Automatic annotation (TrEMBL):
It comes from the Bacteria. Residues 125-238 form the FAD/NAD(P)-binding domain. It comes from Novosphingobium decolorationis. This is Bifunctional protein tyrosine phosphatase family protein/NAD(P)/FAD-dependent oxidoreductase. The lineage of its organism: Bacteria, Pseudomonadati, Pseudomonadota, Alphaproteobacteria, Sphingomonadales. Signal peptide: none annotated. Gene3D superfamilies: FAD/NAD(P)-binding domain, Protein tyrosine phosphatase superfamily.
Length: 528
């Protein structure tokens, strides 16, 4: 019978049968937990039969069925209690071991969170604050290199989102459920989950402060909090979202409304106007405002109504895209769709019921009526970071842009949207940063200086229509950095291959590669 080690003295397996008990005794198992309901399939041993055989050989049996209406979380507290009261080698089983592993993960999460919120002193070798793409990828890369390392992830949300997919939901390509998983399902094996919100950092005492007054201490800290989407910075925007044609692909719940509005405008007779905004940099995925616009225009073009829709792009900046090599292809797309470019135009107010948007320009404020408004919020440093000693003047975790090590504390690292590196804030950047952080964290634990380098890589697949993408890839200074040979994908030109990469390959690469510590095409480079 094959078993899988989870952590400590806990193992899981598939169905255990009475004839397996002698083998469990030989392996030193002292506790047996059955997570499989009786009578799930014909020929399955019932629990009492197993329990009698286990007791006869000195193994303590417990029945905690999972299945049907009983979720792993429902048995988490009881599972944790059994482990606490029965120290020693333990085997939990179900049909395949998967349910038992999920119960173990839920129990570990609950125990860690309860320990933190009940004021018990918690300590972990590595504490990662933030369970988004950057935090989980960093944890997975760490545990890939050091499976027994004591790693805890502090994250309050039970849901984990594939944010690059929101644009595709807004364009009618993906379905909303394609972009979300339960956090417990994507946590790397061996990581503890402290399900709590962070309230502050005290790096001089190696402490992460949690809401409610609890704290967690660490040997090394990794800050992976995202930036703040400042919806409230635009007057009237928050109240207007999700109705009267006001939408944004920057929110999971609103991306489907974007697609609804695209379809509605396609059916609406007569002239109409669609506005798309982009706030000042830096923002999360600087190409996303354009992607929403191009996918909308592509649908209207396909439906034969684009000529009746006046499309305007109000960009607070002065250029279409920050890396000049990609601008010619994007300008061709703008001209193809007849988009009115409005540079130096910043969205400052929205009146949803009146369907009016106000923009600040160099010559003063202007107000434009709309039938659809895709708004992108200004973005700023995470307030938890901004109010801590870790922050730079802009409110981001201040790190060396190559090693990702804090400038003030050598046992602190940061990555993702909430750190100070001047790269494009994309999931692709976090994917490249995570292995660098993992290698440098392990060096710090050994009392050594960083040994891996991040080159500023970022990627932005610019969906110019439903079927073609301009695949922007670049490092610090706007230097082009294609991952694939030019004969396969010329990133400066619209490509169908790049579309299939975005639509078909990147989601599984994210879920099953990046979040699992598989560093395809992003091995950490040595620090020169």
């Amino acid at each position: 019978m094959q078993t899988r080690h989870i952590e400590g003295q806990l193992h899981v397996s598939g169905q255990v049968r009475p004839q397996d008990i002698d083998g469990l005794v030989s392996a030193g198992i002292t506790t047996l937990i059955c997570n499989r309901p009786d009578n799930e399939e014909p020929g399955q041993p019932n629990f009492e039969e197993l329990a009698q055989a286990a007791r006869a050989r000195g193994i303590a049996p417990f029945y905690l069925p999972v299945g049907g209406k009983i979720a792993p979380e429902d048995q988490a507290e009881a599972f944790a209690k059994i482990l606490a009261e029965n120290p020693g080698p333990t085997l939990a089983f179900c049909r395949t071991g998967n349910r038992s592993e999920k119960v173990a993960c839920a129990a570990r999460s609950r125990s860690a969170a309860n320990g933190a919120t009940n004021g018990r002193a918690l300590h972990h070798k590595v504490v990662i604050v933030g369970g988004g793409s950057a935090g989980i990828a960093a944890a997975a890369s760490l545990l890939k290199r050091s499976p027994a390392l004591d790693v805890a992830i502090v994250e309050p949300s039970e849901d984990h989102f594939y944010q690059p997919g929101f644009t595709m939901v807004g364009g009618g390509v993906f379905q909303q459920p394609d972009t979300v998983r339960k956090t417990r399902e994507v946590l790397p094996k061996g990581a503890s989950w402290i399900r709590a919100a962070v309230s502050g950092f005290a790096p001089d005492s190696n402490t992460v402060e949690l809401e409610g007054g609890a704290a967690v201490t660490y040997d090394v800290l990794v800050v992976a909090l995202g930036n703040r989407l400042a919806w409230d910075s635009i007057e009237g925007l928050e109240a207007a979202l999700g109705q009267n044609g006001v939408t944004s692909n920057y929110r999971y719940d609103l991306a489907p409304y974007t697609w609804q509005m695209v379809q509605k405008l396609a059916r609406t007779p007569g002239p109409r106007r669609a506005l798309f905004s982009q706030p000042p940099m830096p923002i999360k995925c600087a190409g996303a405002p354009q992607k929403a616009m191009y996918l909308s225009c592509s649908e209207w073009e396909e439906r034969g109504v684009l000529g009746d829709i006046e499309v305007e792009f109000h960009n607070a900046g002065g250029v279409l895209f920050g890396v000049p090599d990609y601008v010619p292809a994007l300008m061709e797309t703008v001209e193809r769709y007849g988009i009115g470019l409005k540079f130096g135009s910043t969205l400052v107010a929205v009146d949803g019921p009146a369907r009016e948007a106000t923009f600040r320009t160099e010559t003063g404020e202007i107000t434009r009526s709309f039938d659809m408004l895709h708004a992108v919020p200004p973005q700023e440093g995470n307030p938890i970071i901004a109010n801590s000693p870790l922050a730079d003047a802009a409110g981001y975790a201040e790190v060396d842009q190559v090693t990702l090590q804090s400038l003030g504390w050598p046992n602190v690292f940061a990555l993702g949207d909430g750190c100070s590196t001047p790269n494009a804030k994309t999931a692709a950047a976090a994917r490249k940063q995570a292995p660098v952080v993992a290698v440098n964290v392990l060096a710090a634990l050994d009392g050594k200086d960083p040994v891996a380098a991040y080159d500023g890589y970022g990627s932005c697949p610019l969906t110019v229509d439903r079927g073609h993408i301009v695949l922007a890839e670049f490092t610090y200074g706007g230097k082009l950095a294609p991952s694939l040979p030019r004969w396969l994908i010329d990133g400066t030109r619209p490509s169908r291959v790049a579309w299939h990469l975005k639509a078909d390959a990147l989601p599984p690469i994210y879920w099953h590669g990046m979040l699992k510590g598989r560093e395809w095409l992003v091995p950490p480079a040595p620090l020169l």
